[in-house]
Amino acid sequence: MRITIDEARLLAELKELSALTDCEQDAARPEDVAVTRVVFSENDRRARTWLKKLATDAGLLVREDAVGNTYFRLEGKEPELPVVGTGSHTDAIPFAGMYDGTVGVMGGLEALRAIKRSGVAHARGIELVMFTSEEPTRFGIGCLGSRLMGGVLDAARADAMRDENEMTLKELRAGCGFTGTLESVKLPEKYFSAFVELHIEQGPLLEHEGLQLGIVTSIAAPAGYRILIEGVGGHAGALLMPDRRDALCAAAEVILAIEKSALETKAIDTVATVGTCAVHPGAVNSVPWKVLLQVDVRDTDSARRESVMQRVRAAMREIEQRRGVKMTETLVNADEPAQSDAHIVETIEGICKRGKIAYRKMVSRAYHDSLFVARMAPVAMIFIPCRGGVSHRPDEFAAPGDIARGTQVLAETLARLAE
Ligand code: GLV
Ligand code: MN
Ligand code: MN
What we know:
Helices cover about 35% and strands about 25% of the residues. By secondary structure, the protein is α+β, with helices and mostly antiparallel strands. The protein starts with 6 loop residues before the first helix and ends with a helix. The relative contact order is 0.18. It binds glyoxylic acid (GLV) and manganese (II) ion (2 copies). Glyoxylic acid binds near residues 135, 366 and 367. One manganese (II) ion (MN) binds near residues 100, 101 and 368.
């Protein structure tokens, strides 16, 4: 009873999903596929409806929770047993590519269909999860759905979070039909007996080393901060330079201090990014008086990650004094790294060896919903190569053969874990 995935159908579905996007394509780069699909946008809702139809057609049971995490279940012979899970996300940051997250969701769907088609017996149910808002675009915090599932994020705090239009999560989810309390999103202990996420690597190692697959042994720890810088605004012509307390000039120094502090650890695993800079009032002839930075700092070592922010804080105090501005830091999230489960890693390795697949074990520097599923279940991840290590860009690309291979290994892993 060999499990065989349908590569052509999977690739066609990934292509179809990529058409649900809110950004224009760049006519000068016709081979790129730009995807913007922010949680609870019209295209996110279309993607959800489309995916539910595919899953229902495949005979899977569909269930949604109060934040829109969607579960697709292939029932096992012993429905009372904890299930084997897989899944990822279909939301996409502005001007992303078509593979981040989607390979894990569409590959997961195809894996479940392939297991069903094969008729292979499995005692445990196997569930695919489409997690809500893995990307932080709308609410500034990543892995929203999986955090709530793992009970890592306070429900009241989550419901009160606002997007840039001042809409709360509570209002936005209700608008999509996701009512109910966020407390109910938390899964019971031992819901999953094991969880495996398929994802593109988003880094260059597999390609550089000519390997076909990566098995993730740990996921680096991300932290997010907001830094508000308040200076004094005024007329761009009339406010003289010696009198200025320009918030954007102060922000520029903070941004460079963040870069410097990350470099000072001298560790290749330390990364820091200022990804947004909102300038108020944002007019060419107005001296900026308020700037909001969103900062992303990551490391495999959370103490070293914290040392980056300690140096940044010292720099901020000095810049405040010298420039006569005020800076306020807000912590959005500071998460711990996650370790993969040795038994799942061994299971994937066994499948790779039997299939003569060239693989390596590796760290994930990007975060994933698996980081939070790891709080409640044994997890591991399967990485496939992506061209040049490029991700979060329209030229993100994973080769059809790599997508198919990753999905095949996922299907075999899930079937084995569900035996
Ligand atoms: C996920 O998209 C991440 O930023 O790691
Ligand atoms: Mn992403
Ligand atoms: Mn992703």
